[in-house]
What we know:
The protein is an alpha/beta fold.
Amino acid sequence: MAVQPTWYFIQVESARYCLVMTELLEANERSQAGRARPDSKQQDEKMQIGVDSFAAQFADAGESANASASKSVRHLVERIEFADQVGLDVFGVGEHHRREFLDSAPAVILAAAAARTQRIRLTSAVTVLSAADPVRVFEEFATLDLLSQGRAEMVVGRGSFTEAFPLFGLQLEDYDSLFAEKLDLLLKLRENEFVHWSGKHRAPLTGQGVYPRPLQNPLPVWLGVGGTPESFARAGTLGLPLMVAIIGGETRRFRPLVEIYREYGRRAGHAPDKLKVGVHALGYVAETTQQAIDDFYPGYAKTVTRIGRERGWPPVTRSHFDAARSKHGALMVGNPEEVAEKILRHSQALGGVSRITFQMDVAESSQARLLRSIELLGTAVAPALREKAEEPLPGPETLNATIHSN
């Protein structure tokens, strides 16, 4: 099965989902006449800002693979600790099972960070639930929650890489059913100490207790999604907060998908304030725009081109990068003021978001540069964002024109 890029939007699978899309978008348009648009200003005031990392391995010249891996993981924990010190809200660690990323055990990395932090929330980004045992995942993150005194979260998804499936003896043709079944079990484990459950892909539970229980009740679980309407509908139906990975294209193009999430949540009876939307994006902050571009682009082009070869994408060009960094593009690369403005623009385009996380590893920058970018996020972008949130938002006509214009 080919896993589509995150900005993939109803092209190959349009026949499968077009009826759902049409029905929901028509219902949404009818409902807009009778109610106010989502209060994105209120959500912006509560917006959390954070960083995600895939624990990319960075090697110095002449350094052995094992030595560079050890250094890279320790540097990651230092970045999490520093993010806590500069006031960021959340730090996420991904899960991959390939040479260039060292995050195959995210709960272990987050546990090391829990011992060195005080306030920042610690989450996966994402847990590849399809290829994991939900019982073990729950136990690990419940333990993390105890260590961190109630700061653990999970973002669960199917993952954009497929190496985990053959690694753990799973079949790619079960890609969808594995995730649906394991998510069902994970949520039951979150709700109940003793679980009775049976499914196709795992041995049944017959009332066994699952321990430890987390400090938070319930342990926060977000659903990580890319560009498949069915995933947005699932999150809304379950009333789970939504984390949208937008790594290319234009953010505003995801508004119809976010409306599917909100509409399905409404139909399922979930309160609007429960239906939180987060965005995971590629980003980097420096003192000046030019410095941010110079620091970010070379590594970005190298990394995305390398991954693109596996998926049939064309090589990254500077014109592609400039388009992605433009007003409506997904990349958040620049000085603190323009990055803060872009965060607000993304939030308004999506009808209000509760959390934005920056993935900086793709730049392959030095530890010093990554620490400086994290510092600017906490000490410059976040204050600018709070200040701009006080400014008047565009009216509904202007917002709708922005969303639907080509």
